[in-house]
Predict the structure.
Amino acid sequence: MQEDTMIFASEEDDVRTVTDDYWEILIVDDDKDVHDTTLFALNGCEVLGKGLKFFHAYSAEEAIAFLKKDQNIALILLDAVMETDHAGLDAVRIIREELKREDVRIVLRTGQPGQVPELDTITDYDINDYKPKSELTRSRLLTTVIAALRSWTQIKRLEASRQGLEKIVDASNQFIAEKGLQRFAEGVILQMAGLFNLKPEGIVCATNLSSGDDKDYQVIATAGEFASFINRFVPEIENLKVRESIIESMEGQKTVLRDDSITVFFKESSGRAYAIYIDSPKPLNKVDNHLLEVFCTNLSLSASNIELVTRLKRQAWEDQVLHIPNMAALMEEVQKWHKTGEDFILLLLDINSFSQVNDLLGHEYGDELLQALVDELHHQLPHSPFIARISADIFGVFGPESDLNENIINRLTSLEVAVRGDLRELSLSVGVAHISGIDNNASELLHNAFFALKQSKERSEPVYYNDDIGKRTRERITLLNDLKADFAEKKLFLVYQPQIRVQGEDVYCFESLLRWKREDGTFVSPEKFIPLAEQSGLIIAMGEWILRRAMEDLKIIHKEGFATMKMAVNVSAIQFCHPRFMDMLDQVLEDTGLDPAFLELEITESISIMSVKDILKLLEALQKRKISLAVDDFGTGYSSLSSIDRWPVNRIKIDKSFVQQLDDYEEGSSIVDLVIPLGKSLSMNILAEGVETREQFDRLAKLDCSEIQGYLISKPKTLPELLEWLKERESKS
Ligand code: C2E
Ligand code: CA
Ligand code: CA
């Protein structure tokens, strides 16, 4: 019995009075005697404060069946050899791998010393202990059981602590959401409960820094039976035990241990203090006391991390260059005021040609200019409204309508700012949207203001959003999306309109014109969708496709016996200015194998947005390839005729609007009467488009116009229609 006493003495801390709680132990053995001796040896013992309760299985199969139903077994005393030589080990494998019971402790017992399993098996399957049955005297058996149950407890605690840690980590990740601190606090309760093997019930209080009163302790998180205490101020808590412990802890800035509770105190680097109260049915032992210290140190570190995370959060709301609120912050602010129903408006300010300033004078200068603008805005606008940076050169100003009246807004279209000692005049586009105009959320207000801003750019004055602007913009967006989709699905197609020489009336060229037929059979005019494609950049891909298609179709026309025909393709200014335009053109010509001399490009005077130098370079490159050039819509363009005389172009196309005017004017008095001699004097060919009547034709012929295009000759036709038309015309001549 000496041995037994020793064990009890050394395990004094762990063997206490029986509670109604007990450890469940499963004895698995095909020998009934073993069950009996085990019971005899262990009956009435208490381990780690709990009694023992036994269950019995007489084969591995029976044991597995039992474990499938019972989730509470902490320890299995398992016979190695039963129905088969491996029955015990097989059962271990099933328990660990199939039943996924990783926590349950297993002590393997065997009759013969030769049946010792491999060491690998013992570690792989986490077999707690391996014992020859001869060693299972009362004291040794008890030691084994205590060790196994202790290890089970640790596993359980680790598990709970891990869950607590997960919550804490999770809290750090949630810095955007306000819940960050609360999740952290909940994690702390869980972790503490796991660590000290207590029920996860408790409350966390913090000093309320925002109130400026250190004594305003408030409950910020709760768990279990304390749930109803959430958000309450500590002095108001009726539970005397809880209230006193927390106040003692907070005022003494220390951890308070009582017989039936633990109140942990810690502080984070910002100075905010925390007290966590948790019920503990028994006082902590020495080991746990030490653990508590480590835990508290850790806590203040973690809490300071939360602080750090809060700082990160601040950064997420701030523009990194100008240190003013960013778009996300503006959205928050709008959302806040939206709920109150007050009369607020949002202005979006866009600096006109800011990118040029940036390109010419550098980014640093650009940043200084933006800063100067923000300063000037604060100077100009009363009652410091909310000013945020939305994108590179767009700012949002959000404030009460009464502060941002029409006069003030009008002043914002032109501002003088000081950069590096120089005064610089900035021109701004301004879009305005009213918060009462939105139903849903902040982003709707931003959208509306953007729509208005876009209009403002076109009109060069502040634009106030209204339903009409919204409707038109939304229609355009829908139309553009449809266009993109239909273009991607190759639903657009080309038609070709013949051009003839006045002399002899022979066909020499076709103009390719793009067509878009909607699902419902209606056509959208290119005058409507080409500008959309241009604004969205879609024209680049579209233009390449048009050129390729037109060239391929021209090859077919040549093969069908009309080998001298040329093709005129419209090129938008956006396409023409694109840096890769020449490469694209060369590639298409190479791929289709057509002689470039068969290609004519129709450009408009709007290409003069490019520098004269760049235009001339491109035009010369085209000339070198023998590609001919026509200036489309001649006479309608804004550019002066003066620049055109320097362009190496082959042809000018008189716009159909001038041709149609012919009918209203006496001979010699129409614009055409002026323009044709002008073109001639520049030694260019003159083509008149939109010719619908013989009278028009005759008058143009008399004016020495060289080429004609229009319904009089033919409407634009699909390729098969065109081939048929050509053949018929050929057969007539
Ligand atoms: P545009 O280049 O000035 O094209 C001439 C327009 O006049 C075409 O309209 C044509 O169908 C029309 N037309 C031709 N003969 C007559 C006539 O006798 N009477 C009348 N009333 N109209 C006539 P469409 O096809 O609607 O094209 C409109 C504009 O869309 C074109 O003007 C051009 O600027 C643009 N466009 C069309 N296709 C393309 C293309 O493939 N690429 C580019 N970039 N723009 C294109
Ligand atoms: Ca056996
Ligand atoms: Ca044209």
Observations:
- The CA atoms of residues 39 and 515 lie 94 Å apart.
- The radius of gyration is 44 Å.
